[in-house]
């Protein structure tokens, strides 16, 4: 994977380490996601960025999640997104822009909030920006109508499945939170293609065998949907899914390779592994006829979709990498 495809999770982790190391000097303050929108627009305008149809197109927003108690890093990461207030000391805004030379690009803008000075842009290394990502027009978020992050946490906290899960698994935290719109239907999730969704994946980072749960919240309506990954099983067993694809030993433990099985291929067949931003993080092209199992590469924690294209017939399955 090229350096330009560094995931937002890695970028956010690096940024948070930098913020925390200077926390006493900067005294960063948590703020709601929509508070920074005027600053984002101003920064884009001052940079001379435009888009073909709109002054600004925000394609995704992300932050380090509710990571209090994250193993040995609890003290370092404890000041991240607050599941009770919806505030975070750092938000990153992913922009689809056209530069001064008319070239389409993807840019990342990060903002922190400090006393007296208010919101300040936080520098991101140039090689961390995923400039080669193809973000579709439908990926633009409806920032004028979307709920603020405190309303999203209210919706999450009111979800019965989340309440029950968090009571039984008090150490399960969502270490990466993203607002995005997916370019095609997420299997088993009751939201239409292109819906703006907040994504949470709750897991105990200190226990790879503990259960994990993912939740999605519609950014405009506040509708919530959660699903809990089945308990880990032997590598020789399969998880029962409606899809023709299966993930063995699901959820995939941290640092482990997942195994995907499917009906034996015939003719042209490809498999893509897609993250929540619609990016194909890896692909298996021109599978040999008769192939029925592939080993996935090491993936960063999060929710993914495996999509099989068998001569124009698609089958998908979502899975969690812990």
- Helical fraction equals 10-25%
pLDDT average, as an integer? Answer: 75
Query: Globular, elongated, flat, extended or rod-shaped: what is the shape?
Result: globular
Approximately how much beta-strand content do the residues carry? 25-35%
What order do the helices and strands come in, and which of them pair?
Layout: H1 8-21, H2 23-26, H3 37-46, E1 57-64, H4 74-77, E2 91-98, E3 104-114, E4 118-122, H5 149-157, H6 160-168, E5 173-174, E6 176-181, E7 196-203, E8 213-218, E9 224-228, E10 246-248, E11 259-261, E12 269-274, E13 280-284, E14 293-295, E15 302-310, E16 313-321
Antiparallel strand pairs: 1-2, 1-6, 2-3, 3-4, 5-7, 6-7, 7-8, 8-9, 10-11, 11-14, 12-13, 12-15, 15-16
Can you characterise this structure?
This protein is α+β, with helices and mostly antiparallel strands and 322 residues long. The protein folds into two domains: 3-228, no CATH class; 246-321, Immunoglobulin-like (Sandwich), CATH 2.60.40. It has six helices and 16 strands. Strands 1, 2, 3, 4, 5, 6, 7, 8 and 9 form a nine-stranded antiparallel sheet that branches. Strand 15 (302-310) and strand 16 (313-321) form a beta hairpin. Residues 1-7, 13-26, 69-78, 129-138 and 231-242 have low confidence and may be disordered.
């Amino acid at each position: 994977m090229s350096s330009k495809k560094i995931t937002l999770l890695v970028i956010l982790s690096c940024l948070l380490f930098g913020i925390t190391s200077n926390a006493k000097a900067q005294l960063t303050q948590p703020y709601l996601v929509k508070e920074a929108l005027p600053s984002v627009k101003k920064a884009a305008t001052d940079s001379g960025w435009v888009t073909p149809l709109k002054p600004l197109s925000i394609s995704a927003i992300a932050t380090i999640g509710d990571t209090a108690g994250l193993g040995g890093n609890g003290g370092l990461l404890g000041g991240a997104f607050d599941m009770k207030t919806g505030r975070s000391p750092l938000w990153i805004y992913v922009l689809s822009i056209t530069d001064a030379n008319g070239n389409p690009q993807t840019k990342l803008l990060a903002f922190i909030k400090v006393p007296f000075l208010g919101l300040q842009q936080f520098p991101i290394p140039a090689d961390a920006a995923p400039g080669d990502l193809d973000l579709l027009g439908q990926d633009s978020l409806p920032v004028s109508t979307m709920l603020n992050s405190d309303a999203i946490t209210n919706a999450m906290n009111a979800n019965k499945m989340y309440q029950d899960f968090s009571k039984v698994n008090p150490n399960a935290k969502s270490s990466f939170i993203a607002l995005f719109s997916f370019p095609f239907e997420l299997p088993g999730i009751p939201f239409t293609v292109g819906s703006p969704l907040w994504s949470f994946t709750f897991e105990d980072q200190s226990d790879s065998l503990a259960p994990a749960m993912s939740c999605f919240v519609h950014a405009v309506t506040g509708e919530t949907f959660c699903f809990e990954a089945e308990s880990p099983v032997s590598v020789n067993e399969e998880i029962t899914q409606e899809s023709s694809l299966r993930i063995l030993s699901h959820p995939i433990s941290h640092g482990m390779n997942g195994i995907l099985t499917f009906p034996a291929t015939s003719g042209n067949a490809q498999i893509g592994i897609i993250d929540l931003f619609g990016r194909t993080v890896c692909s298996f092209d021109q599978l040999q006829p008769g192939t029925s199992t592939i080993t996935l590469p090491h993936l960063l924690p999060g929710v993914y979709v495996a999509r099989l294209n068998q001569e124009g017939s698609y089958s998908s399955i979502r899975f969690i990498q812990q």
